[in-house]
Amino acid sequence: MEILNLLLQGFSISILPSNLAACTIGVLIGTLVGILPGIDTISTIALLLPFSYGMDSTAALIMFSGIYYGSKYGGSTTSILLNVPGEAAAVVTCLDGYPMAQKGRGGAALTVAALGSFVAGTIGVIGLTLFAPPLAQAALAFGPPEYFSLALVGLIILTKLAGTSMLKSTLMATIGVMLGTIGLDSMSGISRFTFGIDELNRGFDLSILAMGIFGIGEILTVLTESKDQSTIPSLRFRDLYPSREECRRSILPIFRGGMVGFLVGLLPGPAATISSFVSYALEKRCSKNPDQFGHGAIEGVAGPESANNSAISATMIPLLTLGLPFCGGTAILLSGFMIHGITPGPTLITQQPDLFWGLIASMYIGNILLLIINLPLISIFVQLLKTPLHILMPLVAVLTLTGAYSINNSVLDLFWIVFFGVIGFFLRQTNFEPAPLLIGIIVGPELERGLIQGLIISNGSIWGLFTRPLSGTILTLGVIFILYNITRSFRKFAHLGKEMNS
User: Fold this and answer.
1) Cα 284 from Cα 256, distance rounded (Å)
2) Closest CA to 250 of 294, 304, 308
3) Of the candidates 296, 251, 253, which has an alpha carbon nearest to the alpha carbon of residue 275?
4) What is the mean pLDDT of residues 231-249?
5) 8 Å CB contact between 182 and 200
6) CA distance 404 to 388
7) Distance (Å, rounded) from C-alpha 192 to C-alpha 293?
8) How far apart are CA 108 and CA 100, in angstroms?
9) Which tens digit of pLDDT belongs to each residue from 16-43?
10) DSSP state at residue 212
11) Which residues sit opposite 179 in a β-bridge?
């Protein structure tokens, strides 16, 4: 009851004209950041930090938070309509969202993405409201050995489920892990595989890789395939919204995605991106028709889009209650707190309850505003499909390259985005799925860091990772998963051999 009273007090603060305006501006900017390829959430907040000096601290932090979680709504738009992820967490949405758009169901996919984002985002905020302190303590139970175990098993499982061929997916994930080692070693500070190029010390930017492989790669694919514009379906008004069957198939993935995203969001790392891949893998495993995934399954849109929005709310828990930024987005939010003289942590709730509960209440309001903003504009977004390709593709290329340059103001990034675009094009031509490559790049650095720190804790003994209860349990589950799939493969080959002999 006390929490409810405090939350009502927070609503009384968040609906003040200045705070409500800040929330509206934040979610609008966040939506645009998500829609525009290459415009990074972190860089956007960083650019706006100086403009917040004259603002009230509560209004400024409400605006920055609105940009942070609002970007996940807009990220699905270009992923579904153009196969160009607006930000890294929307990469997995391309797998089924874009095929749906090609079948004339782009509007339905956008509607389900918006509704899923609203429901799961609200689930995440409710979890943030009720369970912030205890769940933050649970997240601290994951030390380096546990996080290495989780990253390793997660990489194995995601690699198995993200691609059509286990061998090709494993190869792509391995290359991704190798690419993730380029730059400064986080433990020793030594440059690795930079070949004397100073800008490579920071490694490859995930946004650059995603825009290159998925964005420029798609543009090159479209340009080399002599498609007639008539292949793009004509969408009627009633096609812009999901059918009863699509709604039915989306309900459980939305709630499962909300739960998965919230749990993953409590762990260090790019939670929104990882949770979307985990949700996609879960939905593919739970589906009665897994063969539909990658060809326009509505569950492949509903689950991941819900997961990444719920994860964003969960990442606020360690930031607000412990002062620990577990990902890049909350790290830049922490900078916003510090600029306004606020130190997040256990004392924030007791010493500045108006700010804490006002910020949480604004997230409820922000989710409603995002739904109101996104649903009426779906028909406008869908019109992009009718734009002639000779106009649309150069426009997308300009936006992508401009966004890539704006992230670090680096000409070298333009080279890399074109380079990875060519790589993405050849991957498509040779039937290699690029998603496992991105999984490897995301999980690789966390995997390496957890292994090194875990070995230091166990005095160099690899068995020390198995003797810790939580780490050992996770690794054991991974071994069981591998043995299960090996057994299935043997049974499959044995069955094929019997059929050939007969």
Assistant:
1) 12
2) 304
3) 253
4) 66
5) yes
6) 24
7) 38
8) 8
9) 888 888 888 888 888 877 776 555 576 5
10) I
11) none
- Reported confidence tier of residue 340, pLDDT bands at 50, 70, 90: confident
Q: Are 171 and 165 in contact (CB under 8 A)?
A: no
Distance between CA atoms of residues 400 and 388, nearest Å: 18
Task: Give the mean model confidence (pLDDT) for residues 223-243.
Answer: 58
Element (H, E) at 299: helix 299-322
The H or E element spanning position 192 is: strand 191-192
Query: What six digits make up the tokens of 57?
Result: 């601290």
- What is the torsional sign of CA 131, 122, 9, 326? positive
Q: Which long-range contacts (CB under 8 A, 24 or more apart) does 183-189 make?
A: 186/445, 186/448, 186/449, 187/449, 187/452, 187/453
418: closest CA among 254, 245, 212?
Answer: 212
Max CA distance (Å), the chain: 80
C-alpha atoms less than 13 angstroms from C-alpha of 363 in its C-beta half-sphere:
29
The alpha carbon dihedral of 210, 212, 445, 49 has a sign of negative
Q: Give the number of residues written for the chain.
A: 502
Distance CA 212, CA 231 (A): 25
pLDDT band at 230 (very low <50, low <70, confident <90, very high): very low
